[in-house]
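call fold(seq) -> tokens
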Amino acid sequence: MIKILRYTEYLYLAVAIISIYKIITLWPVSPKDTYIFIFFAVVSIAMFLFRRNYRKRFEKRKRENQK
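ret:
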């Protein structure tokens, strides 16, 4: 379970990196087309941080319950 949570964190980070790349490459051509990628990048980074925080709390609670 913990490994799956860790992989989904990095999946969100990968989506953010791809979105940032698309923003950089599309901005000079058509700034209006980059707004969806800006949205994806912001949401993906927020989800990465949320999932990471959630996983760490889950691991901490699990360690405390094992004692």
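The chain is about 85% helix and 0% strand.
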